[in-house]
């Protein structure tokens, strides 16, 4: 279901602050600024900023909220929210995004319909403005689709970014990009939050058709027969324990003026529910595994963004979608599967299903012409242990390609952190029976999962993002609701533009 999670209009405004009409005006306030800088705002608030500063109520600590009523009768906006932004020196695009996110979230919680966010000069204007837009729209997102009655909120109908003076066209373009990328991230969040009963591989494929199709983007869906014809035995193996048939979603972005040569291949894990299969998971928290398609959702929504941003590099998106269930026909530990690239895999643990379906999808992406690969997956609990919830794992080869993906992710404000891929780790995947096993034991679990994928990368430049810890929040953040984050959309959509092809 399409809820318009990507449809809040954002405008740039400038001029007299008192002339701006909104339900709530939000502005960052720094820990280390004097009363001078906010003087005109403080005057409009009848001096409450200064009083709150003096009493210690307002300190400017990151994400602290301070509400005040406007005292000046001529001001058109009657209520102000100051959001703590920390120290000036540390107010970069990442901080600006979460500060704006806290404003968006607070506004949404308070049924604000028209929000103005005051962009306070720091750093380069265009990227800061983009970050602010992204923050507000990501922060204001709330998923109430499955509530029969939603009295708690009404969506933002408009957002205005206020600047002291008129802004350059680059800044306007950056704001537009922010609107698009936040919108596509929010759509990915909706896909990811959907329950497994309603969001099966077939439904996923239908939604991808709706979301990713565009003037230069086609969507093709491979059904069971096509999957068999491609010899995707790893995907078939994972899917066979479920009554829901698998699908492979293939999205092709082909611009008219395509740069000859490179084809970026984006591959996303689309497990619509991961019970673990016969190597079944424990009941505690198993419901979270409805989100095991977050990587696939990110690829679909990144392809949507790419079609609209129109880079000159060709991009192909491949999402293998399946449900991992312990039915009567399910794969057994010890079974041997034949992959699309001919390798034989001994399945020692049916819960290591993501790498299986991704292995075949990486092969397929190559078959369809990809020259550079990036995959994204909620792949391992081990990655969550290693990096927690504040960075995705980054693996791959060669180093130069991995490094360029790292830089793009950094600029997109989606933190990643590299894990090593020393040859020795591959020894943990040696099988007595087949070419390799699908698990390498507990030590370095995120890395051995990466080593498994590497065996299917065909020697092409390939990077792997493990988003098991970053695809959703289990607890609400000041700038972000509980649930899916849409992580990866911004990075993947930026890759065609920002890599030196
Ligand atoms: N989808 C899970 C990984 C996961 C765990 C994602 C926690 C998000 C949060 C994956 O399919 C899985 O089950 N991995 C196993 C691999 C193991 C059997 C080698 C894991 O991490 O326990
Ligand atoms: Mn699993
Ligand atoms: Zn999984």
What does this structure look like?
This protein is α/β, with parallel strands linked by helices. It has two domains: 156 residues, Leucine Aminopeptidase, subunit E, domain 1, CATH 3.40.220; 309 residues, Zn peptidases (Aminopeptidase, 3-Layer(aba) Sandwich). The chain has 14 helices and 20 strands. A hairpin with a 5-residue loop joins strand 12 and strand 13. It starts with 9 loop residues before the first strand and ends with a helix. The model has no long low-confidence stretch (mean pLDDT 96). The site of zinc ion (ZN) has 5 residues, from strand 10.
Q: Looking at this structure, what is the CATH superfamily of the largest domain?
A: Zn peptidases
The dominant shape is elongated
Roughly what fraction of the amino acids lie in strands?
15-25%
Question: How many helical stretches?
Answer: 14
Look at the helices and sheets and give the structural class: alpha/beta
Helix content: 25-40%
Low-confidence stretches: none
């Amino acid at each position: 279901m399409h809820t318009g999670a990507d449809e809040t209009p954002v405008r740039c405004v400038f001029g007299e602050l008192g002339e701006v009409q909104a339900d709530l005006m939000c502005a960052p306030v720094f820990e280390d600024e004097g009363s001078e800088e906010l003087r005109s705002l403080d005057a409009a608030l009848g001096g409450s900023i200064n009083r709150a500063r003096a009493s210690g109520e307002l300190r400017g600590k990151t994400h602290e909220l301070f509400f005040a009523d406007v005292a000046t009768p001529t001001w058109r906006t009657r209520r102000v929210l100051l959001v703590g932004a920390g120290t000036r020196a540390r107010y970069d695009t990442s901080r600006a995004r979460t500060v704006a996110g806290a404003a968006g979230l607070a506004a949404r919680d308070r049924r604000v319909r028209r929000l103005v966010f005051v962009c306070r000069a720091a750093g380069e204007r265009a990227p800061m403005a983009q970050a602010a837009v992204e923050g507000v729209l990501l922060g204001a997102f709330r998923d109430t689709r499955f509530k029969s009655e939603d009295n708690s909120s009404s969506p933002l109908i408009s957002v205005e970014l206020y600047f002291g003076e008129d802004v350059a066209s680059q800044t306007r373009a950056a704001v537009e990009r922010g609107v698009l990328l936040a919108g596509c991230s929010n759509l990915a969040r909706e896909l990811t939050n959907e329950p497994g009963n309603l969001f099966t591989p077939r439904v996923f494929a239908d939604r991808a058709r709706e979301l990713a199709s565009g003037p230069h983007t086609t969507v093709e869906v491979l059904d069971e027969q096509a999957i068999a014809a491609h010899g995707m035995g790893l995907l078939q193996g994972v899917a066979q324990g479920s009554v829901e048939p698998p699908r492979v979603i293939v999205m092709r972005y082909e611009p008219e003026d395509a740069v000859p040569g490179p084809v970026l291949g984006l591959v996303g894990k689309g497990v619509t529910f991961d019970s673990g299969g016969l190597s079944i998971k424990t009941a505690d928290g198993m419901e979270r595994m409805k989100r095991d398609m977050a990587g696939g959702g990110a690829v679909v929504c990144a392809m949507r963004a790419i079609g609209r941003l129109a880079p000159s590099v060709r991009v192909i998106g491949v999402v293998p979608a399946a449900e991992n269930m312990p039915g009567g026909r399910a794969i057994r530990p010890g079974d041997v599967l034949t992959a699309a690239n001919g390798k034989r895999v001994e399945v020692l643990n049916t819960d290591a299903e993501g790498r299986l379906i991704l292995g075949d999808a990486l092969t397929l992406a190559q078959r369809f012409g990809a020259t550079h690969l990036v995959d994204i997956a909620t792949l391992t609990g081990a990655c969550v242990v290693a990096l927690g919830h504040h960075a995705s794992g980054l693996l791959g080869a060669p180093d130069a390609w991995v490094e360029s993906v790292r830089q793009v992710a950094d600029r997109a404000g989606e933190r990643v952190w590299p894990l090593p891929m020393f040859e020795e780790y591959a020894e943990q995947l040696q099988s007595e029976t087949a070419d390799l096993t699908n698990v390498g034991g507990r030590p370095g679990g995120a890395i051995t999962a990466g080593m498994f994928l590497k065996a299917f990368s065909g020697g092409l430049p390939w990077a792997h993002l493990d988003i098991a810890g970053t695809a959703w929040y289990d607890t609400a953040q000041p700038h972000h609701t509980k649930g899916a984050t849409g992580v990866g959309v911004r990075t993947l959509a930026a890759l065609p533009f920002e890599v030196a092809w």
